Structure formats: structure tokens, C-alpha cells
Amino acid sequence: MGIGMELQDLNLTSKKFSHQKFRAEFPALNNENVYLDSAATSLKPQAMIDATLEYYAHNTATVKRSLHPNALQVTEIINQARQNVADWINASTSSEIIWTSGTTESINLIAQSYARPLLKAGDEIIVSELEHHSNLLPWLIVAEQTGAKVIKWSSVIDDLTSLLSERTKIVAITQMSNVTGFCPDLAAISQIVHQYNAILVVDGAQGIVHHPIDVDKLDIDFYVFSAHKLYGPTGLGVLYGKQILLETMPVWHGGGKMLKSVSFDHFIPEQHPYKFEAGTPNIAGMLGFNATFEWLKRWDFNQAQLYTEQLADYAKSQLSKLTNIQFYSVNNSSIITFNIHNIHHNDIAILLSEQNIAIRTGELCAQPLMQKLGCQGVIRLSLMPYNNKHDIDCFIIALQHAIQILD
Ligand code: PLP
């Protein structure tokens, strides 16, 4: 997009995306603050806040246990939430959707319940070098427990072919890097991984926010994400697993409502998804997330993403005018990461926050990738369709001011 060009609202399909209307849904934006830290966690639409408030103020009840009307109604809505997730990612049935506390817990569940019983000494888990710590540490832990090895992969497809062998049991990759914004070609990766009878684990924490995902078409074995990055509540996440895999996986947490029967001698677990969901779940979170999906369906997702990419192009073109800037992110991404030569990233963050600009700096939970990039940390701004050109202009002015002070 040309630098001086106005960003257009896009109303090309029956579902609409109007930037002004979209932005107006977020009460957190009714002030002078500029929020450019959405890859850490997104702001919340009023619809999601209302649903959560309604539950705590008027409809508090447990799920899957009590038989009074509120409990039955809340149980029905959380079933609907599970179906909404299944539809969003095109899972074949809602029983392939397991509620967790977030991406991190979902990957730990796969590592402990799927991988731990399977792996033996000498087996290999291939993990890309782009990964967030939550898609590396669970594999290192299970490797330590079983004698398997974690193998580093550059994320370049040709390199994957030379790493795969009959020893490979799992390949783990992000849908979208939280540092560079890079989106690997999951279709090609899936095809290669399955030629070796390994399974593919995809971390969708960032990707699901900006890109459509079809777990069925891409033949993904496990797909995970966190609600809080997709306009939803904190403390809630999703593990999608292919039915055939979930069926054979043992339970990993014990507690209420994950079992058919129990005595002091033995227990019989429920079917999935319930066998993985011990204890009272994050009910308010699920209700809020269900409201998020109902709200999301009102907007044209592709047009919203196109708008965000145009905004990111504008931000990058403005940043490119600065001298001594080094970019680490790919083009056309809602994530822009960079450093300013000879200035510490955290000094920039402090001076920006004094000017009411929220961004993220540091290693972004990706130490191995920082080593590869040859830096100890980066400055990251991350955009959502609720951001606008004014946010970018405020950010650039504040950044120029910070550089003047620090240079
Ligand atoms: N994976 C990626 C790519 C992320 O960006 C994040 C969070 O920033 C995570 C995993 C971890 O998500 P959570 O902390 O919600 O479990």
C-alpha cells in the first residue's frame, strides 16, 4: 500500500468488515492508550465480556453435574462452545476438541499422554527452531523421561526431508511464528511427515488469530491454541486431536467427571474428550469463548486480515524511514519485530510505555530463535483489525522521541 493512501473499509461480501464498527466493539480502546501487544494477548470484545459477567452475576452454576435449570443451560452452552471450536478449525466431530488451560497445557498433554507411552530410547522428535518455549520444553521433558532425542529443524522444508527417518515419531511446528510472523507451508510439511508415519503437532497460538485453518484438509494430527489470543478469555485453551489418536491415549489428570466408574482397586475412564477434562472446568471462560465465536461469525475474517496486513505494511514503511533499524519479521505480517542499532530493546519499551504505547520487547519466549537471529531480544509490535493508522502514527512519533533520548 502507498504510504499516503488511506486504509479502506472492506465490504466485499455478505459478511462485512467495517474497521470503525469493529474497533467500537472493544471497550479497552476508549482511551488514549495505544495497544500494539496483541500477539501477547488480544483485547476483548464487549460480547465476550458481557457473557462472562452474565455468568458470574446471574447464572452461576456448574456443568455436567447438577440438574437445576441454570446448570443445564450452562452445560448446553459449553457444548455449543465445543461445537463452535470444531466448526472453526473443521474438526470432524466436537469430541475431538479437548478443553485445556491454554496452548502450553495442550502441548504438555500431548507430550505426556500421547508421546510418553510411545517413545523409547533412540526415537526422535523433530522441533522447529522457530518455536515458542511451550512447543519445545514439553518435548525436552518427555525426551528426558523416555530416552528419546529432540532434533532441531530450521523450518525449511528441504531440511526436514533430510532429518526424517524411521526413528522420527513426532514433528512439531508453529502455524505462525510469534517472533518473525513466518507461516510454514503446513500442507507440504504434513504430506512429508506422514510419509514417514510420524505425527504432526501444530501450534496454532498465533496462526489461528490471523489465518483460516482446516485440520481435516491439512491432515494435522494435533492442533492447539489459546482462547486469550483470539479475543477470548485467559486460562482457556484447546487441544484438537484426531479421534483415532485420542481413543488410544491414556488419561493424564485424575479427578471428577473424567471416569465411568472407580473403586479402590481400579477405574474406568470416560471416552474422550471427557477423560482428559478432570475437575470443574473454566466455565466462565467457555461461556465467554462461545460468545466470542458467535461475535466473530458476524465479521468477514478474510477482509479483517487483509485490513490488518495493509496496516502492517503501512507500519513497516514508516519504520523503514528510521536509520539503524534491523527487521526480523517477514513482510505482510501482523507481527513486526526489529531492533535499533546500539539501543537496548527494553529501554525503548520503557520510554514507549511512558507515552502510553503498549508493545512487547525481549526474547519473546523463544531463546533458541534469538540465538539464531544473533540478538538477546527484539522490539515487537503486533496488530489486530481493531488497530488503526492513528495507532501507528502515535507509535512512530513515540519511538522517534525515545530514539532521540537514547541515541
Ligand atoms: N505458542 C506461540 C506461538 C505463542 O505465541 C504463545 C504465547 O505467546 C504460546 C505458544 C503459549 O501460549 P499460552 O501462554 O497461552 O499457553
Describe the secondary-structure layout:
Blueprint (H helix, E strand, L loop, with lengths): L18 H6 L9 E2 L10 H12 L11 H21 L7 E4 L2 H16 L5 E5 L8 H10 L2 E5 L3 H7 L4 E7 L11 H10 L3 E5 L3 H4 L11 E5 L10 E5 L1 H6 L10 E4 L4 E3 L13 H14 L4 H19 L5 E3 L7 E6 L4 H10 L2 E2 L1 E3 L4 H7 L4 E5 L6 H18 L1
Parallel strand pairs: 1-13, 3-4, 3-5, 5-6, 6-7
Antiparallel strand pairs: 2-8, 7-8, 9-10, 11-12, 12-15, 14-15
Helix pairs in contact: 2-10, 3-10, 4-5, 11-14, 12-14
This protein binds pyridoxal-5'-phosphate.
Pyridoxal-5'-phosphate (PLP) binds next to helix 4.
Q: What is the helix fraction of residues, given as a range? A: 25-40%
What distance separates the N and C termini? 31 Å
Q: Secondary-structure element order, as H and E?
A: HEHHEHEHEHEHEHEEHEEHHEEHEEHEH
SS field, number of helical segments = 14
What can you tell me about this protein's structure?
With 407 residues, the chain is α/β, with parallel strands linked by helices. Helices cover 39% and strands 16% of the residues. The chain is built from 14 helices and 15 strands. The chain has a seven-stranded mixed β-sheet with strand order 2-8-7-6-5-3-4, sandwiched between helices. Strands 11-12-15-14 form a four-stranded antiparallel β-sheet, covered by helices on one side. A two-stranded parallel ribbon has the order 1-13. A hairpin with a 4-residue loop joins strand 9 and strand 10 (267-269). Helix 4 packs parallel to helix 5 (137-146). The longest helix is centred in the N-terminal third of the chain and has 21 residues, at 69-89. The chain is globular and about 70 Å long. Residues 1-6 have low confidence and may be disordered. Bound molecules: pyridoxal-5'-phosphate. Pyridoxal-5'-phosphate is lined by residues 102-104, 132, 134-135, 174, 178, 203, 205-206, 226.
